[in-house]
Amino acid sequence: MSKSDPSTEHPSADQPPESSDTVEATAVSPEDTAAATANDDLEAAPSEAPTSVTEGPPVGATEQPPAGYYGPQGQPMPFPPAKPKPNLFIIIGIVVVALVAVIVGAVLLAGGGDDPTRPVTPGQAKAPEAAVRGYLQAIAAGNAEDALSFAAVSPIDMTYLTDEMLAASLAINPITEITVTLDEMIGSKYAYLSASYQIGSTTVNASFHAEKFDKYFLIDDVACAVGIYGYGSEGPPMTINGQPISLSDDFSARVYLFPGSYVLEQGNPYLTISDNQFLVTSPSDHPDADYKLSLREDVGPEFADLAIKTLKACMKEKTTFTTCGFGSILPIYKGKPLPIKSSTIKWSFSGSAPDYSNVEFNYYLSHPLQAEAYRGASLRLDVKGTDGKSYYLNTRVSSVKIDFSDPNNLKVIFN
Are 235 and 292 in a shared domain? Predict the structure, then answer.
């Protein structure tokens, strides 16, 4: 069979027309195109058999795209250049890093994590760890208001939850090396945490409970209730970190304190205080706030000199009952009051006058503003009655007390 000239040959009525290159090219399947190409090759060289099979077009020929890949007007289109294949391990690494970044960001935004390097806005902790960390960092910075902003419930009394108290505490022992760990999360609202920090040289391991309110986490307890016992009006004025302590009628006080270092002081110059420093390690702590009061060691000579001078002055008084506390209010003779002439009253020592210079004055907490020395003295009262007769009274003092409740006006009491 030979090729027909498309310009002179017309198809007959019962022969289907040939496909148009311009209209029907896109509808031709790759198989049909391949078959047509094979037929053309056979007609061009019917008597020649191929002697070899080679890949690609003959030398000098233009490479054609595979059958069926045609552009507009049936013209063959070249394939775009092949893209290099990316390394599979690089793809996996990029995906993993992206996923980790997304997860971490989502957790932080949801309040499920804490970045310890970021400052915590007071009262706006989105993670429970941030609430505890922000609270401790505020205390370490001496900022009471910021520390209180992390409280779920405000303490009953905030008298001593001040910047001044924290400044005094941090001057004694700074708070450093704060580390917070989330121990357990119950749902998305409740959290149990542990914190480690230093108060001076003391390592503290404390437990905290945080709860989510609306968007932010707050701490259940931010202050520790400490009981301080004193002596009320019968004892010396007391302070804690320089702030006065008001004692109740039962001579005690309940004060609320932040974690830190505290010192109790007393305000009477004749006393000293010791064992008066204590730590509050955490809001759940139960510290021992005891202290010891003692009489100043060098007051003995001063008290002894005051005692003998007072005794001698009282013995000059023209009264049967002296301001020193010895004598008789109403002299009795034979069961009846004895009328006396006050001008005749005379006090004297029965023997030598007492020497208080080497006596020891004792201090008892039952009378926290008094000191007592046990040194006796025998005294005699001579007086004349209105009947003209002479009468006398022997009495004795066994001890002397110095009352220094008013340091500027000491009182001497003889028993």
Answer: yes
Q: What's phi and psi for 341, nearest 5 deg?
A: -100, 115
**Centroid of chain to Cα 28:** 81
Say if CB 403 and CB 411 are below 8 A apart. Answer: yes
Note whether residue 119 is domain-resident.
Answer: no
Q: Which of 205, 188, 180, 173 is nearest to 282 (CA)?
A: 205
Q: From residue 245, how far is each of 137, 232, 253 by CA, in Å? A: 27, 10, 7
Number of Cβ within 10 Å of residue 112's Cβ equals 16
Instruction: Among 262, 296, 330, give the residue marking a domain's end.
Output: 296
pLDDT tens sequence across 349-364: 998 888 888 889 999 9
Residues 6+ away with beta carbon under 8 Å from 131: 120, 125, 150, 210, 216, 217, 218, 219
Asked whether residue 353 is assigned to any structural domain, the reply reads: yes
pTM: 0.67
Domain residues for the domain of 291 are: 224-296
| pLDDT per residue as tens digits for the range 251-299 | 678 899 999 999 999 999 999 999 999 999 999 998 988 899 999 999 9
- For residue 319, which of 308, 311, 330, 310 has the smallest C-alpha distance? 330
CB 322 within 8 A of CB 413: no
Residues 273 and 317 in one domain: no
Q: Are 347 and 388 in the same domain? A: yes
